[in-house]
Design brief:
By secondary structure, the chain is an alpha/beta fold. The chain has one domain (2-193): 3-Layer(aba) Sandwich (Rossmann fold). 53% of the residues lie in helices and 12% in strands. The chain has helices spanning 13-23, 30-36, 43-52, 65-73, 76-102, 135-146, 150-158, 163-168, 180-195; strands at residues 2-7, 26-29, 109-112, 127-132, 172-175. α1 (13-23) packs across α9 (180-195), α3 (43-52) packs antiparallel against α5 and α6 packs across α7 (150-158). The longest helix is centred in the middle third of the chain and has 27 residues, at 76-102.
Length: 201
Amino acid sequence: MILGITGSIACGKSLVAELLRKRGAALLSADQLAREVVEPGSSLLDELVTLFGEQIMTLDGALDRDRLGRLVFADEAARLRLNALLHPAIAKLAEQRLAVLAGSGVLLVVYEAPLLFEAGAEGRVDRVLVVRIEPQLQLQRLMERDGIDAADARQRIDTQMSQQEKLDRADYIIDNSGSRDETQRQVETLWTQLVGRQSAP
């Protein structure tokens, strides 16, 4: 089975994905694929520079993801142009990697994709897990994680599909509003539900 993991920004998707990996799942991250498709020398990186200018590059010729992020979070049209370039490239690579993993004999393949629904990528997975978090806690964690103020954090949250809409489309839900131990217990329950106890440590 291929399980897609998604959720709103700063909700704990990576934590849940890593906990499943430790249980024995094979993990593929859309964020990592997004880095691969814009590696120095790639044609896609050249297209991004043409679109957004040299300001999005670091001195050593790599993509400055933080600077690009600030540009597109503040400009809806720019964000849509960026997604129109990135999503097809990520989709192609994801489908290749997921096919390999699905054929490898692992009990569970996890595809962590923050924009799973926004990119129309739910067709790549068999089931979808949405990680949720209390909105005020989400805001606080995002501010702390990215070193931004409340206004910037709210702007980033508002650019994404609402948490409730994602929850309405979920096959499974994990609430990451509590402690790490509470989240881990939910992950263990889900693991048992999906693949049984045979490989649990």
